Amino acid sequence: MTLSSLSLRALALAGLVGAAALAAPTAVAADYVQARGGLSFVGKYQGETFTGLFPGFSTRLQFDPAAPQAARLEVDIPLAAADTRNSERDSTLKGADFFNVARFATARYSAQGFTALGDDRYRANGTLELRGIRKPVTLTFTLSGGDNPVLVGQAVVKRLDFGVGAGDWADVSIIPNEIAVATRVTFKRAP
Predict the structure, then answer these.
(1) Could you tell me the CA-to-CA distances from 160 to 17, 50, 97, 177 in Å, in that order?
(2) Rounded to an integer, what distance in angstroms lies between the CA atom of residue 123 and that of residue 131?
(3) Euclidean distance between CA atoms 190 and 69, whole angstroms
(4) Rounded distance, CA 113 to CA 133, Å?
(5) What residue stretch is flagged as signal peptide (predicted)?
(6) In this predicted model, what pLDDT tens digit does every residue of 70-120 receive, in sequence order?
(7) What is the CATH number of domain 27-189?
């Protein structure tokens, strides 16, 4: 092996390392706010599946990839904005038997500390406050790196734990207890 072939190999290796670093942006320790995003839920009523959205929700994130256990996530959800594209259902959801938006305008999810699961996947054992009731809810998600990280996550909320759809609506053969929630949030650095 000659000196020039060693130099070419070293140069090629340096180029590969540099390209890999550019291809996989690393998240940086920072405070972030939501730039854009979506928050949806999937429910069933008498066997018919429907999807709803919460436009106007807001998310804040403090995250250091080197210390996920110190992360913080806060999500504020305006309940009156719930939209299932069915005005009768939306009106019922906003009423006293479900979200009771006259008394509880906003739900809040907060989590302190994430558990790293590998491959940019995390778990947050947080607390959901809904209708004045606070209960644990686990969010599993991916979080991409870079200056504008993207969080894609899902959780399951047991509606009866929060008194959502109590009374005549508590029958889980009509409305299942478990509601799937999904979110996708693109962040920007907080000002």
Answers:
(1) 52, 18, 11, 6
(2) 24
(3) 20
(4) 21
(5) 1-29
(6) 999 999 999 999 999 999 999 999 999 999 999 999 999 999 999 999 999
(7) 2.40.128.110
